[in-house]
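For this section, I looked closely at the sequence of one protein beside the tokens encoding its backbone, which the following lines show:
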Amino acid sequence: MIYRLVWQATTVAHFLVIAYIALGGFLAWWRPRLVWPHLALCAWGLVQLSGLVECPLTALENWARARAGERGLLPGGFIDTYIEGVVYPEAYVWHVRLAVIAVVLASWAGLAIRIRRRRRRPARTPGTSAAPEPEASR
């Protein structure tokens, strides 16, 4: 029972990580510090696309599935098991990947614009209005 719970929790975590990779840049518009974990996960996603290393979440899920007496994920891991051919047809893999990359880049461009606008705004001190005070006539 516990292994089944571990595998299902890992599946949920996988979906959340993938959603954060795709949309986390927009969360950074709200909280700019969130861009750092987003950048890290995007870099990790690119490493995963290379196929050189196994995702630790995939390894954990396969371990828990084996202990629960279930078969592991397909050789392509989480994406091949739960997303490709399920959420979108396998023939559109590169279309979807390019769309996700475009969404991520758009979120980063929007974040850069928002940060630039914040820096250009004059700083407000508590208790003052944003409008400049009129100059005294001489």
Summary: The helical segments are 2-30, 35-50, 56-67, 78-83, 93-120. The chain has one domain: 2-120.
